[in-house]
Design a protein that fits this description.
The structure is a single chain. The protein is built from nine helices and ten strands. It is an alpha/beta fold. It has a single domain, classed as Alpha/Beta hydrolase fold, catalytic domain (Rossmann fold, 3-Layer(aba) Sandwich), CATH 3.40.50. The strands form two sheets. Strands 1-2-4-3-5-6-9-10 form an eight-stranded mixed β-sheet, with helices on both faces. A two-stranded antiparallel ribbon has the order 7-8. α1 (about 45-55) links the parallel β3 and β4. It is globular, with a radius of gyration of 18 Å. The two termini are about 20 Å apart.
């Protein structure tokens, strides 16, 4: 299997991406992939990328700025605007350097990046979109956040926002055993750590400002504009995203398919659910040919 590591220029910084397959081949479509909140591509995305490559697709898996080997002004910044810029930068790079039109691109997202691919598809057309347990409505997700932590977490987030103009940050853990973290579902600590390979030093901290801004990120409000064929996979027992919000968003997409699994937010990366997820992806991708 061909694997190439590249760095995509993005202003003063670089987005690091892994390319799977033969990018000199003009005919096959490319799947663009990035991880969710606080995630890096080394945490579970490789098996999916290899699966799609075996199906005959080219795959580009990248880390948002500030994560992995991608450089950024603020380490591990989770911000929907800057991450949408990252996606658009990678899309433009595919167009300019490999002459791949958006009509040959399939966007793949999980959790927070699942919200990104839905947002991008509301703005322009792609060959297809796959959104796995996507962030669809920040306000709905806040209803699942433990009420006892909401005020102190907001206070830390406001501290971080106050420090931002001075180039400083106040961080919070992505997950924590006591659940005082950005992702505070009961299964989040064990679930997130299950994605991290042995001997990988994952940085469990991000700027806390995301707590104060995530409620304003609501891809569901633009889902009706999506024209591209779209597959949304929902997790019935999702501790972060109310399944009712996921179902509601899927119903808004004219050319959409929806499949629901009786699992939690992190289970699509593990047996027995991963094979079911991949099977649904394969069936959907076959409809795009």
């Amino acid at each position: 299997m061909e694997l190439q590591q590249i760095f995509i220029p993005h202003g003063k910084h670089q987005i690091q991406a892994d390319l799977y397959g033969n990018f000199k081949q003009q005919s096959s479509a490319v799947i663009l992939m990035a991880h969710g909140l606080g995630g890096e591509k080394q945490c579970g995305l490789q098996s999916f990328a290899e699966f799609y490559t075996d199906l005959g697709f080219k795959v580009c898996v990248f880390d948002h700025r500030g994560f992995g080997q991608s450089t950024g002004a603020i380490k591990n910044l989770v911000d929907k605007n800057s991450q949408l810029e990252d996606w658009n930068c990678v899309i433009q790079y595919m167009q300019q350097h490999f002459h791949i039109p958006t009509e040959h691109m399939i966007l793949w997202g999980y959790s927070f990046s699942g919200g990104h691919v839905l947002t991008l598809a509301s703005q322009q057309n792609f060959k297809g979109v796959i959104a796995n347990s996507p962030h669809v409505d920040g306000l709905a997700s806040l209803t699942l956040y433990p009420k006892k932590f909401l005020t102190p977490a907001t206070f830390v987030a406001l501290q971080d926002l106050a420090l931002a103009p001075f180039g400083k940050v106040k961080t919070m853990p992505v997950v924590a055993e006591d659940r005082f973290a950005i992702l505070a579902g009961e299964d989040c600590y064990a679930g997130y750590h299950s994605l991290i390979p042995p001997n990988v030093n994952w940085d469990n901290a991000v700027p806390a400002r995301i707590v104060a801004t995530i409620g304003l990120y609501r891809p569901t409000t633009v889902a009706h504009k999506i024209q591209s064929p779209t597959l949304i996979l929902g997790a019935e027992n999702d501790s972060l995203i109310p399944i009712s919000a996921t179902r509601k968003t899927a119903q808004k997409i004219k050319n959409g398919q929806y499949y629901e699994l009786a699992c939690g937010h992190f289970d699509l990366f593990h047996a027995p659910f991963q094979s079911e997820v991949m099977n649904q992806h394969q069936l959907f991708l076959a409809t795009l040919e």
